[in-house]
Fold ceramide glucosyltransferase.
Amino acid sequence: MSPFDSLDAFLIYSSGVFCSPLAIFIQIQGYLICLILAVGWAFAAYVRSREIRQMKDSMKGGNSFAFLSHDINDLEHSNQVNLPRVTVVMPLKGFGEHNLHNWRTQITSLYGGPLEFHFVVESMDDPAYHALNRLLADFKDDVDAKIIVAGLSTTCSQKIHNQLIGVERMHKDSKYVLFLDDDVRLHPGSIGALTAEMEKNPEIFIQTGYPLDLPSGSLGSYCIYEYHMMHADDFRNNRHEVVSDLRDGGYSDDMTLAAIAGAHKRLITSPPVAVFPHPLASDLSFSRYWNYLRKQTFVLESYTTKVNWIMNRALFSSHCYLSWGFVAPYLMAVVHLAAAIRIYSLGHSLGDTAHTSRGLTLAGCLAICTFIELLSMWNLTRIEVQLCNMLSPEALPLSLASYNWCLVFVAMLVDNFLYPISAFRSHFSQSINWSGIRYHLKDGKISKIDRSKDKGPKYTDLGGKRLYGKRGVHPNSSIFGSWSTNLTQWRQPRKFDV
């Protein structure tokens, strides 16, 4: 028997194995995962489309400033002068192609109350320091903003260290503090909308939002599919030991704050308008995406309490199981299709092998579920793009033309296939390189910090920001990055300028 015949036999045999009761269960489970994701995205789309309808109704009623407030009376001077003071704290690291635009949208907020911005850097050697100095010089008479040099962290991540230093320097009358990442773009009314929600419901502990990732064309950018507003007094008074937990070994502000909120039954909300454009680097390679994924899974290794550890382990297990549960049916479907193609090409009828016909039926069901899932994702993205355009009428409009949905689908498979691998790698390594700094965990907290410019990366993962003053060697694109770039150029002849 020739090797090719052996391959045919293997494909037909594998197709039969994948029609066993256990394999069918795995495939049906994958269908359900697709449909559950579709339902979740449909619900999110409904919530955001309702916000769009409210804005349009307000505009029809004569409110041309509906992107700031649905009720134009809220914009009266008598109401604006009573707005609470807000401090915006932005920890910075490095400087890249989108930072200047992002910073401009952040400091040109149309919030009517007292507002101050604290840009916090590790040292004056950070490329962000000099770029920000030049930017703020253009707004020195219009914006209350300052650059703070925080120094090196020793007991927590550099980002958390910068955040805490920024909080220490906030105005004594500030009622709310907004921790903002420097790689997202704010809408003119974002700070006002968040503050209004906090004022309506004093029980809110944290308000958070989500980025609308704008792919750059590389596969890594498609595989990546924040901020927090809190009460200032929670930090002044170290309520629930929020400062202590962050400062003493804290790695991830997201996970630490979520754990505190869960332990003390505090409310976390996300208003519908909390969707912000997040442009990704145009040279985002697959290796940088992998390091980003490593950081995302590494947060599950940090914890503050035993209950937090149990919750992280549950997230770890369920996410790994569901990720591979999502990918497995596609691998089986490929085998079913390959076996059917070989049988047909050899001149045999598909009816000659019952399991092959059954396999095609299973693959067809998966195709239907996948179409529903991608349609739901497309609809959510369409609505979020529309919402962002309405919330920032002065900005260049965003467009769905920047998305290649073939790569979106491939990225979903790649992301879910690699997630468990990354999670196990994080669990057994207990260390991660984040923006040129290597952190080591012990018992869920940072126990050691290594800094070495020679051994670390020259660029951050998503934004492609230079981490050091001198320009490093331009990162080489991986084979995946080259392949995805070629596919994007074929599918999308003109690149969307973000």
About this structure: The radius of gyration is 25 Å. The first strand starts at residue 86 and ends at 91. Residues 202 and 449 are 38 Å apart (CA to CA).
